[in-house]
Amino acid sequence: MAVRKEAWPEGCPAWTDLMVSNLEASQEFYRQLFGWEFQQADPQYGGYSNAMIGGETVAALYPTMPGAGDVPHQWLTYLAVGDAAATADKVKEAGGQVHVEPMQVGSYGTMSVFGAPDGAAFGTWQAGEHTGYTRVNEHGSVIWNEMMSRDYERARVFYTDVFGYSYDDIGDDTFTYATIKLGDRIVGGIGMLDENTPAEVPSFWGVYFGSDDVDASLARVAELGGRVVREPRDSTYGRMATAAGPDGEYFSLISAQRPWQA
């Protein structure tokens, strides 16, 4: 387990949230799956509700916003930035799109949402009072973030141009994958979606939540009305599986054998 109170370094995954169609139902799903407790949703901020473990923030849920239309329900990864406006300029220069211009959220911080050239959505968070995750690397909290792309080489160039990422290739003949580094620090992964990926699956940033027992957690997902997307399997980095929640949102489960640095 790791608790971090200060803002995350520039370019590091710092937060994740999910737009849901039924806030109370989704809260109950994740409460029973991970033991999350929820701060009371604040109408001033669209019913945004932080999820907590032991009083520390791990994620957030919020109800579908008016006018959202066909925006998909998916966990959104936010990358830490020190200057949201300057980052927005870099995104544009690197060929990305601005979906939500930098927007101050009271005294909590400044958020933006972008689209990379391969279509993957991601957010940025310039911390104020809300620094992002304050608990990671344990059951029910984020352990890993990865970017899976249909245009792998272009994605690597884009994130290097915007955030200064470097990469260590760890793939082989069966898959293309690299760790994302900021200096000497590993902060996530980037991989290529292969030809077996259904055509309707776009490039995306994925989130992995820790589990003390991946098999039991996946069975619990099904009991709670979610769906098993990929059965548990062992890897060098721990046992993992992929599931879908009440709105079909994908997320992965992984044992915390090799947690990322906090």
TrEMBL record:
<dbReference type="InterPro" id="IPR052164">
    <property type="entry name" value="Anthracycline_SecMetBiosynth"/>
</dbReference>
<keyword id="KW-0456">Lyase</keyword>
<feature type="domain" description="VOC">
    <location>
        <begin position="12"/>
        <end position="127"/>
    </location>
</feature>
<feature type="domain" description="VOC">
    <location>
        <begin position="141"/>
        <end position="256"/>
    </location>
</feature>
<protein>
    <submittedName>
        <fullName>Enzyme related to lactoylglutathione lyase</fullName>
    </submittedName>
</protein>
<dbReference type="InterPro" id="IPR037523">
    <property type="entry name" value="VOC_core"/>
</dbReference>
<dbReference type="InterPro" id="IPR004360">
    <property type="entry name" value="Glyas_Fos-R_dOase_dom"/>
</dbReference>
<dbReference type="Pfam" id="PF00903">
    <property type="entry name" value="Glyoxalase"/>
</dbReference>
<dbReference type="InterPro" id="IPR029068">
    <property type="entry name" value="Glyas_Bleomycin-R_OHBP_Dase"/>
</dbReference>
<dbReference type="GO" id="GO:0016829">
    <property type="term" value="F:lyase activity"/>
</dbReference>
